[in-house]
Amino acid sequence: MTTLxxxxxxxxxxxxPRTTLLDILHQHGYLFGTKKGARLPDSHGQTx
Length: 48
What we know:
1 helix
């Protein structure tokens, strides 16, 4: 179990060691607006 401070509140989390911090925060419902990676255009100019 790990404790971190997020926006002034102490949060206790348990997780699999190879999980990224971004994934942990999404899964536990703390940060929804962050995105993983960049949106890159493909050869037709569409982003994915």
